[in-house]
Amino acid sequence: MAITKESFGAQVTNTSLSREGKSQNISDRAISLMDQMKDQQVDADYTLIHVSQREIIVEFQEGSAANPQNWTLKKKLFNAIAAFLIIVNCGISSALPSNAAPTIMSEFGQAGIDEWSSLPNAVYLMGYVVGSVIFSALSETIGRRPVLLGSFTVFVLGTLACALAPNWPSLLVFRAICGLAGSAPQTVIGGLYADIFFDARTRGRAMLSYTSAREKKAD
């Protein structure tokens, strides 16, 4: 097959263009890797990779103590039991005023208005609805520990405020605050157990205790 001067020149041009394209791809990849390295925050225990403004990947170092799956059994059990008690406490509080409703109504001068007797429970559950949307996303952004500790502190203070409420409207406001703060364990502790327990069987048993606490609250 005869190769003319024109066809040979075209082949040389295509080869050079192909090489230029490959070199451009390599340079693009290098720039991309450099950008990723700039967006990485390296710590002794983990690395934070900023994929985008709203997405961060956490990569733990092998055997890192910051990884909950590498915690000792004692530490795992302590956190699991503490979380279980928190969710039981917040769950029971949702229906706690039910049996004392006549006494509470009489104390605040609302006796005889049966339609209002369920308001302390209703506003608590309204706080549950709003708080679940907030705390579930917030725990993925700032972590589960600050969400649980902060919300439970507000819950305890709100419960104390309910006991010291001077009138009926303030009682309802404090009950709504308790419901808002008490919703955090309902949405966060399931993720907490998933973080701590890596083995499927152990995680299943932990989730069983979590769901049983929720069912006990519903009953």
From TrEMBL:
UniProt-listed InterPro entries: MFS (IPR011701), MFS_trans_sf (IPR036259)
Origin: domain of life: Eukaryota
Name of this protein: Uncharacterized protein
Keyword set, alphabetical order: Membrane, Transmembrane, Transmembrane helix
Residues of the signal peptide: none
Transmembrane segments: 77-96, 116-135, 147-166, 172-198
Subcellular location: Membrane
Short name of any one Pfam family annotated for the protein: MFS_1
Lipid bilayer topology: Multi-pass membrane protein
Provenance organism: Talaromyces atroroseus
GO cellular component: plasma membrane
Main location: membrane
